[in-house]
């Protein structure tokens, strides 16, 4: 049981990274990406292949995964982010389909069987095989993601992004180069998804296309919307809820997608700001009213 | 070989064109993409196939029922997933439509099961011979039927009061309202017409591939969106042109480049179009 909870915690951590990074795109760039799982997959394969074929040490594998997925995000974002919101949604969805086909058919990704025996990370001779030790890596990854997001969101650039999201024309009049910002944030989010992919691959040690399909992309979108678009804490909460909930509701597995789809429609009609909205987790309700 | 691929491409392309018309009409009037268009296509096919499977319903009645089922689902979708969100950030209805699409797909999975259903009626067409070119009679019939639907749509939009009212709403919603047009009703009508067309596409492909299954609308829906962008979003002749071109490109690509990457072709075209000519071949109002 303890091992199972540890396993869920590690997966939850990986999904926190995914949800928080997608929230950068949805909540700050005001765009929808339906291909976030594709970046997650690219990161997983890139990290695995660097570690296995080049015998690169673990930190280098992670770094290469992040750089490579970031570049993929850049390549996809450049042509599409100049356009309206809807285009990115479809293009990223199509990108997801293309990457899915590549993972299934290419030799380097092991075809439909995927890759078995992804090496266990070891840093300075310490092997992170035990799940408890691996959790340390995941916690580091989550902290890194939250720190980067927090620093970005509270900086000048974060305010520029919020301005673009709230009123793009006004932001442009104020001299903010909105396409450049959108492309940059998209590439950053892709690169963080690559980090999540790398963490997943070296933990599960057997990757194939199934983990990185549209289903996963939609799940991440659900996490962000449930927690509240634009709220970092909300995305963390959404990721935790949607990692734990399916496990406790195993007997309803056949209805899972039905529930996710209905949840999205109902949530947007009734409470579009999500659980937390754009607010922060506030402890004000604990304060005594004067 | 080449000509045969061309005809195959035109046939699947005509289904893309019918779905693309739904996208384009709804985009034209609301400025939103109805992500669930592919699921409407699937439900149209299912309604027809299930009715025909009873063996007591004539073919044309089953087709009419399929079109009506698609139209009703489109209408419900507009009420539930779009109307409450009007005026919100465009992101919100977009995600809502994605949710509706997943919901409908998994609903079909629960109701109808994951298996392929063959089309209950078989058609016996004699192979035609057109100027020495052998043509599959079924393909010719599908293509003609699709062109017929497209022709009806163009007549409806150009020459009827309601069609003109829809165009007026697409051009300028506020002015249309001032002229006494009930914009809400026109939006509903657009969803009905666009969904019925997608349903028609679904029925045709259910006959053509002899398979109906819950996920059948997913890829055609996405590809039809690429077709709408290729032709120019919001432009009705553009959607037809885009759909047919996309079908041909896909069929030729599968034959001469690689069949395992067939499904990628539409999206590569989409990205190229957005890169080179985002307004589409015939200028749409999208950009």
Automatic annotation (TrEMBL), chain A:
PANTHER family: HIGH-AFFINITY BRANCHED-CHAIN AMINO ACID TRANSPORT PROTEIN BRAE, HIGH-AFFINITY BRANCHED-CHAIN AMINO ACID TRANSPORT SYSTEM PERMEASE. The keyword Glycoprotein does not apply. Keywords: Cell membrane, Membrane, Transmembrane, Transmembrane helix. One of its GO terms (molecular function) is branched-chain amino acid transmembrane transporter activity. CDD domains: TM_PBP1_LivM_like. GO terms for cellular component: plasma membrane. It comes from Desulfobacca acetoxidans. InterPro entries: ABC_transp_permease (IPR001851), LivM-like (IPR043428). The chain crosses the membrane at residues 6-25, 37-54, 60-80, 87-106, 132-153, 183-204, 216-245, 257-276. This is Branched-chain amino acid ABC transporter permease. Pfam families: BPD_transp_2. It comes from the Bacteria. It is found in: Cell membrane. It is a multi-pass membrane protein.
Automatic annotation (TrEMBL), chain B:
GO terms for cellular component: plasma membrane. GO terms for molecular function: L-isoleucine transmembrane transporter activity; L-leucine transmembrane transporter activity; L-phenylalanine transmembrane transporter activity; L-valine transmembrane transporter activity. The keyword Cell inner membrane applies. Belongs to the binding-protein-dependent transport system permease family. LivHM subfamily. The keyword Transmembrane helix applies. It comes from Desulfobacca acetoxidans. It is found in: Cell membrane. This is Branched-chain amino acid ABC transporter permease. One of its GO terms (biological process) is L-isoleucine import across plasma membrane. InterPro entries: ABC_BtuC-like, ABC_transp_permease, BCAA_transport_permease. Pfam families: BPD_transp_2. Keywords: Amino-acid transport, Cell inner membrane, Cell membrane, Membrane, Transmembrane, Transmembrane helix, Transport. The chain crosses the membrane at residues 15-33, 63-82, 94-113, 133-157, 187-209, 229-252, 264-282. It is a multi-pass membrane protein.
């Amino acid at each position: 049981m303890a091992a199972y909870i540890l396993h869920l915690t590690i997966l939850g951590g990986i999904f926190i990274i995914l949800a928080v990074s997608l929230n950068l795109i949805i909540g700050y760039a005001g765009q929808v990406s339906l291909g976030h799982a594709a970046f997650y997959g690219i990161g997983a394969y890139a990290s695995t292949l660097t570690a296995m074929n080049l015998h690169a040490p673990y930190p280098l594998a992670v770094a290469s995964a992040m750089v490579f997925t970031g570049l993929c995000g850049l390549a996809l974002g450049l042509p599409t982010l100049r356009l309206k919101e809807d285009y990115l949604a479809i293009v990223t969805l199509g990108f997801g389909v293309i990457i899915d086909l590549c993972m299934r058919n290419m030799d380097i990704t092991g075809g439909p069987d995927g890759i078995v025996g992804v090496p266990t990370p070891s840093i300075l001779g310490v092997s992170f095989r035990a799940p408890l030790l691996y959790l340390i890596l995941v916690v580091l990854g989550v902290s890194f993601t939250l720190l980067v997001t927090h620093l970005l969101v509270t900086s000048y650039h974060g305010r520029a992004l919020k301005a673009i999201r709230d009123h793009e024309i006004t932001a442009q009049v104020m001299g903010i180069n909105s396409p450049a910002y959108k492309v940059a944030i998209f590439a950053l989010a892709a690169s963080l998804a690559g980090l999540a992919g790398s963490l997943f691959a070296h933990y599960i040690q057997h990757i194939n296309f199934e983990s990185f399909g549209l289903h996963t992309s939609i799940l991440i979108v659900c996490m962000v919307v449930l927690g509240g678009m634009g709220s970092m804490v909300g995305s963390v909460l959404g990721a935790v809820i949607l990692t734990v909930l399916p496990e406790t509701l195993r007997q309803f597995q056949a209805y899972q997608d039905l529930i996710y789809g209905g949840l999205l429609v109902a949530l947007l009609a009734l409470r579009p700001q999500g659980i937390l909205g754009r607010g922060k987790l506030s402890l004000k309700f604990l304060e005594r009213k004067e | 070989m080449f000509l045969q691929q061309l005809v195959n491409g035109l046939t699947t392309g005509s289904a893309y064109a019918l779905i693309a018309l739904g996208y384009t009409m709804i985009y034209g009037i609301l400025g939103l993409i109805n992500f669930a268009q592919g699921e409407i296509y699937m439900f149209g096919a299912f309604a027809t196939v299930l009715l025909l499977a009873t063996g007591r319903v004539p073919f044309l009645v089953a087709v009419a029922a399929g079109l009506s089922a698609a139209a009703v689902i489109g209408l419900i979708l507009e009420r539930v997933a779009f109307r409450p969100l009007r005026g919100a950030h465009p992101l919100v209805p977009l995600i809502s439509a994605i949710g509706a699409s997943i919901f409908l797909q998994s609903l079909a999975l629960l109701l109808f099961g994951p298996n392929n259903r063959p089309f209950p009626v078989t058609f016996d067409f004699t192979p035609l011979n057109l100027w020495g070119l052998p043509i599959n009679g079924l393909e010719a019939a599908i293509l003609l039927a699709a062109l017929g639907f497209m022709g009806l749509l163009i007549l409806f939009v150009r020459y009827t009061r309601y069609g003109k009212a829809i165009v007026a709403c697409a051009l300028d919603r506020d002015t249309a309202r001032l002229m006494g047009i009930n914009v809400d009703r026109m939006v509903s009508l657009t969803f009905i017409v666009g969904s019925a067309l997608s349903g028609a596409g679904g029925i045709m492909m259910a006959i053509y591939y002899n398979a109906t299954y819950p996920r059948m609308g997913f890829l055609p829906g996405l590809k039809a969106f690429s077709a709408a962008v290729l032709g120019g979003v919001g432009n009705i002749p553009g959607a037809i042109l885009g759909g047919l071109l996309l079908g041909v490109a896909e069929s030729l690509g599968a034959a001469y480049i690689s069949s395992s990457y067939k499904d990628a072709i539409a999206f590569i075209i989409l990205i190229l179009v957005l890169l080179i000519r985002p307004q589409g071949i015939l200028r749409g109002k999208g950009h």
